[in-house]
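Suppose you are handed a protein chain with no further information: no name, no annotation, nothing but its sequence. What can you learn? This example shows the usual starting point.
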Amino acid sequence: MVLALPDDAFAPYDVGATAWVLTSAALVLFMTPGLAFFYGGLSRQKSVLNMLMMSFGSLGVVSIIYVLWGYSMSFSSAHTGDSDIAGIFDNPFSLFGLNQLMETIPDPENPDEVLNVIGGFGDVPAIVWAGFQLTFAVITVALISGALAERVKYSTWLVFTGIWATLVYFPLAHMVWGGGLLSNNETSFASWIFGTEDVDGTMVAKVAPIDFAGGTVVHINAGMAALVLVLIIGKRVGYGRTAYRPHNVPFVMLGAAILWFGWFGFNVGSEGTADALAGLVWINTTAATAAGLIGWLVVEKIRDKSATGVGAASGIVAGLVAITPACGALTPIGSLILGAVAGVIAAIAVGFKSKFGFDDSLDVVGVHLVAGLWGTIGIGFLASETGLFYGGGGKQLVVQVVIALVAVAFTAVMTAIIAFALKPLGWRITAEDEDTGIDETDHRESAYDLV
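A reasonable first move is to predict its three-dimensional structure. Written in structure tokens, the prediction is:
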């Protein structure tokens, strides 16, 4: 997913491609309520509303600030031609409010008609692409919430969502997709490592980083932020002594189904049009997700002697996470391998949180960080043209490792700064309120009227 102006900035946009990206944006937006059900089902009954509200809160806050300055911070230099700030982020005021994306001029061939001036992604208008990108920002922030179940003040969470999106998500989106340090331009890390080459008059990295739909920007980003927050905020009261069982497994499986459905907008929509590559992305996404499901269940059967509904749902998400950056670069067989490994290693990884003593409530670290790292780095092995297993040598692998490590380091440092800065607001509800249940104490509601 790389932002680019159309060859003719004044040419009519493709109606079919535009319709598909609008549909994809709706699919990705639907993923956040799906995530809310996934997390809500995994939580205890007395905190299910809080988990739903954390996702809905990110829908509200992040959507607003994305319209105001988020898209501008991520992509404005590609439209305006202005320089970004050290390859990390764009000017937040260049496209503030997005109305600039609707600037028009008279059609040279028909003065009674007008044409959009600002270019978009391929044949899709910029305002449509901005809407699509907004949905990615929303769900990335919402993903973090699963690590913080049952113990974080809702007001502090809302403040965090706005600050973290501004200082972490928007810059990383620019670095990867907007022409920044993790892209393929001549000033990026990839160019520093293996040099540049001239492609149609533009100097680009000889070995370009691959992140088709958000392995670094979404999953490594959210997973690393979750790990930092749980280490700083601390464990739930009773962690290690209390059995935290999912209160509604059908919710979990419904949420996973919605996520799988919406993920076709996530991955296939990132192609920007409905073409043969989009078809390959659809197949690869399905293949990796199915393999992730089976891989997780195999681990459960060997380790726990039973395959569970929660395991099936978690394996689906692990497969989806892993294939996200790789879906346009692998063969279907490579996608099966990538997804199966993701399901296995994520299932193993979630067991380590108790050994290391951190309370990642709903396994955001084990699924999104671990599977996201594997999906990003696995491209270096399995990419059909440049991967190590396909005769491409190790250069792609080196580049993928570098962009993954840079994303991890950037997110870790920035999230820690934000988390400590918000401590005066108070992250935690009281131990008594936590014992009573955050739904009742923080939201004054209950999920189920049992009287």
